[in-house]
UniProtKB/TrEMBL annotation:
<dbReference type="GO" id="GO:0048046">
    <property type="term" value="C:apoplast"/>
</dbReference>
<dbReference type="InterPro" id="IPR000922">
    <property type="entry name" value="Lectin_gal-bd_dom"/>
</dbReference>
<protein>
    <recommendedName>
        <fullName>Beta-galactosidase</fullName>
        <ecNumber>3.2.1.23</ecNumber>
    </recommendedName>
</protein>
<dbReference type="InterPro" id="IPR008979">
    <property type="entry name" value="Galactose-bd-like_sf"/>
</dbReference>
<dbReference type="InterPro" id="IPR001944">
    <property type="entry name" value="Glycoside_Hdrlase_35"/>
</dbReference>
<keyword id="KW-0964">Secreted</keyword>
<dbReference type="GO" id="GO:0004565">
    <property type="term" value="F:beta-galactosidase activity"/>
</dbReference>
<dbReference type="InterPro" id="IPR031330">
    <property type="entry name" value="Gly_Hdrlase_35_cat"/>
</dbReference>
<dbReference type="Pfam" id="PF01301">
    <property type="entry name" value="Glyco_hydro_35"/>
</dbReference>
<keyword id="KW-0052">Apoplast</keyword>
<dbReference type="GO" id="GO:0030246">
    <property type="term" value="F:carbohydrate binding"/>
</dbReference>
<feature type="domain" description="SUEL-type lectin">
    <location>
        <begin position="687"/>
        <end position="773"/>
    </location>
</feature>
<dbReference type="Pfam" id="PF21467">
    <property type="entry name" value="BetaGal_gal-bd"/>
</dbReference>
<keyword id="KW-0325">Glycoprotein</keyword>
<dbReference type="Pfam" id="PF17834">
    <property type="entry name" value="GHD"/>
</dbReference>
<dbReference type="InterPro" id="IPR043159">
    <property type="entry name" value="Lectin_gal-bd_sf"/>
</dbReference>
<keyword id="KW-0732">Signal</keyword>
Amino acid sequence: MWPDLIQKAKEGGLDAIETYVFWDQHEPQRRKYDFSGKLDFIKFFKLVQEAGLYAFLRIGPYVCAEWNYGGFPVWLHNLPGIQLRTDNKIFKDEMQTFTTKIVDLCKEAKLFAPQGGPIILAQIENEYGNIMKPYGEAGKSYIQWCANMALSLNIGVPWIMCQQSDAPQSMINTCNGFYCDDFKPNNPKSPKMWTENWTGWYKAWGGKDPYRAAEDVAFSVARFFQAGGVFQNYYMYHGGTNFGRTSGGPFIVTSYEYHAPLDEFGNLNQPKWGHLKQLHAAIKSGEKVLTNSSSSTKQIGNGTDLTTYVSNSTGQKFCFLSNVNLEDANVDLQKDGKYFVPAWSVSILDGCNKEIYNTAKVNTQTSLMEKKSDEAENSTKLSWSWVSESMNDTLSGKGSFTDTKLLEQKAATVDLSDYLWYMTSVDIDNVTQWTDAKLHVNTTGHVLHAYVNQQLIGSQWEARGNNRFVFEQPVTLKSGTNIISLLSATVVLTNLYGQNYGSFFDLTPTGIAGGPVQLIGKGNVVKDLSSNQWSYKVGLNGEDRRLYDVHSPSGSNWTLNNRLPKRVPMMWYKTEFKAPSGTDPVVVDLKGMGKGQAWVNGQSIGRFWPAYIADKTGCSQTCDYRGRYHTGNCMSNCAHPTQRWYHIPRSFLNKDENTLILFEEIGGTPSPVSFQTVTIGILCGSAYEGNLLEMSCQTGHTISEIQFASFGDPQGTCGSFKKGSCEAANSLYAIQKACVGKTNCSFEASEAKFGSSTCGTTSKRLLVQAVCN
Ligand code: GAL
């Protein structure tokens, strides 16, 4: 997907691509590196360069990024004597080895700008300043060491540290956030840079879909350049998918769409992509003035400011006129004109007397994306085969190592799997004491399945945002030996609040670590099993046998008959399917499934959990862009599965036969599962008078119908436009003629093109709603 995504970023008006480097992926085992396939970051940077763009290398190697364990490999945690992100020799040696490795690879490939490469900037650590206090003096010396270590690598381009207000010089301290216009770097000579402008927000299991309006993102960017900013990066411009088990805290789903300008599948998220593209063009039209000028800001009214940049060489001017109020403003700049500046918006004025852009006036299409069923696939129903997870060994208490305590899960699994079996046995002679007993487990894992004497007695998972719960279920023990097998599953490796962020986040225990695990008998008699002899097994047998891999020799055990097990925990399912035709992105709808992991042709497409339903409350039908955005604002998808559709990149697919394999942990029904494509369903165009209306379906689709068109004073939002009190009579016909049957069309919003309207001299607007087929 890289070339297409990079191209779309370039067309969107970006000059540089910023990316993190993920330590856990590149060094999954100590000193065993992987830079192949999708981990070939050198190739990524070369593609960026071929596209004519610059690059920004954010090594971290702690990256946060809602990535598992913040990007740290878990073997690091297991090195004796190590302390992460502080002045600890063992950690620093590992960090230096990895950072040097990455830098050396870039140097060999001649990727740094002085070598003729695209990389113009690099980052060490990540927002350490926000969490460094509890590390005390060791934190201060660590950040100093980070700076010296990075500088010693001589990369020939500047290093930055984000959110590090005491960044040692010559590290450049940069800002991250929804707004950074007020930010001042710690050195007055440093450029004012914004490394993460959060275009939306992430989504956690149980959470809803975030939405940050295009008008507000544009406002934040324009305010930043108005206030002297020189470098602004979107986080994310494309968030994509957390394939495999890479999702991190807080309890992040497989999709990392982030409401970014390029959606999870690489489609343009419109109007955000287009509105920002026009903003970039407007700002760049003033580039010569902005980069060689002095500026001054004048307060026009309360909350209304005019910032004037005057070129030192030519005297040319470029202005930003902002209104940070929640009410619209009419500004009279005398000889330089009169301007309508909507609430919470910035107008960009070329020559300080001509509006070329306003952040709240959207002249870009809105695309309502749709999932479409593939006809070919629909005509042949999927046929499923299945095999149950073999648990004969674990349900009989047999593992691969033992201990007399309840182990911490990530130390035991080294994160090779989400799963760890904890097994023990207990001898009962007085049965009456233990007939109506309870099994009590205190866990810091996310999910627990408890089996006693081969029977599942209960499953439980954490309530959202809480990494710790108590499991207590009735159990009847028998005389003699009873076997207790507990399967603990993690969803991400995080701290107690489910975050991979914060001081000492890495030390939070996961799994049944320490317990206690107890049996509670009649009269509340407690038998504490925590110091029993425990037997352990990392991962599932199906994982060991690589059941997810079509070429695995154990693949022959699948059963194909019409007694497909439904809602049965611990099942593997398999089906064959044809890739949907065309070029639209492909998703699998996992409606009906519970929780687990999915693979296509042996590649993991991530964890699924459609049984996890988003909160019922907190969604809004409409969204007001005005005012400071905060997470939780303008949410949608209440009371639906947090994530129902899972992305299958076309590059994972064969032309003919493909295999989908699901591991279902809590019980689900695969019969409703289907493959779909993602494309534009409804398309809405908007253009203010004098601007060009441009509309475009996805490649391979055409506009089949114009459902609404009015040049005048129409109202409403895409999907519910209404005519106003005046319009040009032939609005609909003119647009039908220009657009129906075409993939793209454009039309100028003017009386010259539409003929005269009944609106008189008031400024008009064109709104169009069309269908793509
Ligand atoms: C920042 C962090 C990013 C990401 C972001 C939230 O604080 O640097 O890596 O986690 O928050 O999406």
